[in-house]
Amino acid sequence: MDFTVVQGDIADQEADGLVNAAGTSLQMGSGVAGALRRGANGPINEKAVSKGPVELGGVAVTDAYELDAEYVIHAAAMPHYGNGRATSESIRTATRNALEKADELGCKSLAVPILGTGAAGFDLETGAKLVCEEVWQYTPTNLSDVRIIAYSESEYRTLATIAERF
């Protein structure tokens, strides 16, 4: 499986599946979720919320609407309750479940953000390491191209440095 690091907006990626950095309610607010919601230009938020809430680490799937993908896989790395903060375990579980769901859907390509960082409060470097470890350890059935997406140049540099270790 090809494992690459890309700088850019996940909503601009072309892939069979795009992973949304979701909370357990699946409500699409800001950050990655907001970018995907705007890019989809359809009722993606309503469809996502109708499939929730999900357990911490759980996933749900919606159509990608006008995004250049077939599916959006909403991976709940942060709780929409309590302190709202992601944990190492929630990031690992959400990443692994997103990979498994993409495989189950027959996706060959998948774009994944650094789950659990940003609004979920987990530090970027540790979150990137956890996501990269899960992707690296995953044995795919269908997936042949997994891209980890970093939005800014500084996030990209951090992610690229971490990904080089794998």
Strand order of the largest sheet: 1-6-5-2-4-3
Strand runs, count: 6
Largest sheet: 6 strands, mixed
* Amino- and carboxy-terminal Cα gap: 13 Å
Assign an overall shape. globular
Q: DSSP helix count?
A: 5
Compressed to H and E, one letter per element, the order equals EEHHEEHEHEH
Relative strand content: 15-25%
Percent of residues in helical segments?
25-40%
Kindly name the structural category.
alpha/beta
Protein name: Macro domain-containing protein
Domain Macro: 1-166
Organism: Halospeciosus flavus
Pfam families: Macro
Layout of helices and strands:
Blueprint: E1 2-7, E2 17-23, H1 31-40, H2 44-50, E3 59-63, E4 71-78, H3 88-104, E5 109-113, H4 124-137, E6 145-150, H5 153-163
Parallel strand pairs: 1-6, 2-4, 2-5, 5-6
Antiparallel strand pairs: 3-4
Helix pairs in contact: 3-4, 4-5
Protein name: Macro domain-containing protein
Organism: Halospeciosus flavus
Pfam families: Macro
Q: What does this protein look like?
A:
The chain is α/β, with parallel strands linked by helices and 166 residues long. 36% of the residues lie in helices and 22% in strands. The chain is built from five helices and six strands, in the order ββααββαβαβα. The chain has helices at 31-40, 44-50, 88-104, 124-137, 153-163, and strands at 2-7, 17-23, 59-63, 71-78, 109-113, 145-150. Strands 1-6-5-2-4-3 form a six-stranded mixed β-sheet, with helices on both faces. A hairpin with a 7-residue loop joins β3 (59-63) and β4. α3 (88-104) packs parallel to α4 and α4 (124-137) packs across α5 (153-163). The longest helix is centred in the middle third of the chain and has 17 residues, at 88-104. InterPro entries: Macro_dom, Macro_dom-like. Residues 1-166 form the Macro domain. It holds the Pfam family Macro.
